[in-house]
Amino acid sequence: SLNKLDRLVAELGDIPVVTDPKVVRRRSRDFFWYSPILNELLDGKSADLIVAPRDESDVIRVAAACARHRVPITVRAGGTGNYGQAVPLNGGVLLDISALTDIEWIKPGVLRVGAGAKMNAIDAETQAQGFELRMHPSTKRTATIGGFVAGGSGGIGSVTYGGLREHGNILAARVVTVEEKPRVIELRRDAAQKINRAYGTTGIITALEMPLAPSWKWIDVVVAFDDFMDAAAFGYEAALADGIVKKLLAPVTWPLPSYFGALKPHCPDGKSILIAMIAEPSLESFKALLGNRGTITLETPTDDSPGQVPLYEYTWNHTTLQVLKSDRSVTYLQCLYPHDRLLEKVAEMRELFPDEVLQHLEFIRFGGRVTCSGLPVVRFRDAHRLNEIISLHEQRGVYIANPHVYTVEDGSRYKRADADQLGFKQEVDPFGLLNPGKMRSFVSARA
Ligand code: FAD
């Protein structure tokens, strides 16, 4: 197999390649270590070499060479995924897509951009024209738009626009197939969902067309509450208040704020908080809605320029990271609450796991309804107890997207691959070379 890789490298010509095993092993990892379970399962998994295409024609050459030699190819962008999405299970090529950053064009409300562009770089360009991405993960400062679409789900902005899965949140994707003669396919409208959260198993995305939102001057706000349920109830009212323009509403239970490093001066002892991003012209209405139910402890313009720590880096999966910085014994879950019994279920889960599951909610729209995604911090005992906590949630109608598994199927709601994605994979990756093992129900008809 070494010979096979040597022949592959020789065919790549002037396309940059990294073979230093230390570098290759380090870049083959992502943030799967958040999960003690994945940390064991994925330990030591690595690519054999990194190939860094400079443009789409390089991507096509790499795809052709990998198909000819039957070498696996796993795309890596920012490497910030949480489930080992970008960790190659069977070696081969780690395709570093981060040079494909060109913005092809920006029009009012829409842009076309290289898949390797970082989301903060995209926003910096579009904000100059009064627009910004509708949503971004809390890893916006390091993650790419292609990695978000292929490995993520939603984030800051989803309180208004829902997740990436909603109709209209991905307008088009351009993908390169892994065949001896690769094709370039344009997926438009709902067909673009074939690459959404497929972990790069259904084609190499080279460009994306994404809808934009009007950009606002956002204000980072922290509100302290005596009781977590008050923070959740006010967050719900603010989420439902359509006249208040917001990008983020995240209730966080005490004691989680006690881990919040630089934010601690704004987190009074014993208080739960609501973290919010509110458009400046809506701030007055937001405060009027709040009344004297909570105390505003921070109010400052959002700043995510280099060197700054924006407030959103305490939300979504950054909440877990802030705690992990000083306590490596915790892990987390990803919940979806039922929209019609939201606060009731939040209170129920709270009573079920006092001190063991520390609640952190994210208000989102889901299928047009306002509800909460939850990323609670869990004090980890063992895998058995973690699975028990998951079933106890599900038995009571709180759905869990398990973040302790690495396949597309196990991480999905129905524990199976989307039929469209599975069928499309047969077309674009006939030999099963793209991130092998991640779409476990795929059986190649040709390999
Ligand atoms: P990578 O990790 O490099 O890749 C992710 C997946 O996409 C891999 O399977 C990879 O193979 C595939 N991929 C990447 N680029 C391409 C391409 N061009 N073509 C085909 N496949 C490709 N996620 C959220 O959705 N919301 C959040 O709020 C959020 N918060 C996070 C907070 C923290 C602290 C951490 C560590 C992670 C968080 N994540 C979140 C997960 C992750 O950061 C995001 O999904 C991010 O957008 C991934 O982008 P990336 O560039 O790092 O992708």
UniProtKB/TrEMBL annotation:
Q: Does the keyword Flavoprotein apply?
A: yes
Instruction: State which residue ranges cross the membrane.
Output: none
Q: Which GO terms describe its molecular function?
A: D-lactate dehydrogenase (cytochrome) activity; D-lactate dehydrogenase (NAD+) activity; FAD binding
Q: Which UniProt keywords apply?
A: FAD, Flavoprotein
* Domain annotation FAD-binding PCMH-type: ranges: 42-215
One of this protein's GO BP terms? lactate catabolic process
Please indicate if the UniProt record lists Ribonucleoprotein as a keyword.
no
Q: What is this protein called?
A: FAD/FMN-containing dehydrogenase
* Species of origin: Bradyrhizobium erythrophlei
